[in-house]
């Protein structure tokens, strides 16, 4: 059973990343914060952020399945949507904008994770 789950996760990952790398113009690299304002309202960006957020969600599921501390802890009955991911990222960038301007090569992907951790902190 464990081997089958691993195969299923591998297939899902291959399909997901194949889709991302094929269809999105900025999928071959991280998205710089400097391009956030330019891209934030595009359909491709929204799809990309949903994919990144879904990847973090899968990572959480794997950690929890292994009995480890998850990265972040959303309420169990909450389905985190693309709009939620976009809002969390937007709020985090707004909050940290002055600090981010001092980091010329800052990228948005870890900022989404930091935003998720801050928004859905885990009880200790």
Task: List the defining traits of the structure above.
124 residues, mainly alpha, 5 helices, 0% strand
Topology:
Blueprint: H1 2-23, H2 36-39, H3 43-65, H4 82-100, H5 108-119
Quick summary:
By secondary structure, the chain is mostly helical. Helices cover 65% and strands 0% of the residues. It is globular and about 40 Å long.
Characterise the protein shown here:
- This protein is 65% helix and 0% strand.
- The protein is mainly alpha-helical and 124 residues long.
- It has one domain.
- The model has no long low-confidence stretch (mean pLDDT 84).
Average pLDDT taken over every residue: 84
Distance between the termini: 32 Å
**Count of alpha/pi helices:** 5
When the domains are counted, the total is: 1
Shape from CA axes?
globular
- The counted number of beta strands is 0
Low-pLDDT stretches are: none
SS-based structural class? mainly alpha
Biggest β-sheet strands, sense, barrel: none
* DSSP helix fraction: 55-70%
Give the radius of gyration: 15 Å
Bin the strand percentage: under 5%
Question: Helices and strands, in N-to-C order?
Answer: HHHHH
């Amino acid at each position: 059973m464990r081997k089958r789950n691993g195969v299923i996760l591998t297939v899902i990952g291959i399909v997901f990343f194949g889709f991302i790398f094929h269809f999105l113009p900025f999928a071959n690299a991280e998205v710089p914060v400097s391009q956030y304002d330019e891209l934030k309202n595009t359909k491709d960006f929204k799809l990309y952020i949903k994919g990144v957020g879904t990847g973090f969600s899968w990572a959480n599921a794997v950690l929890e399945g292994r009995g480890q501390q998850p990265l972040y802890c959303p309420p169990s009955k909450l389905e985190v949507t693309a709009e939620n991911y976009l809002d969390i990222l937007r709020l985090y960038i707004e909050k940290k904008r002055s600090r981010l301007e001092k980091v010329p090569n800052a990228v948005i992907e870890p900022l989404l994770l930091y935003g998720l951790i801050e928004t859905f902190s885990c009880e200790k």
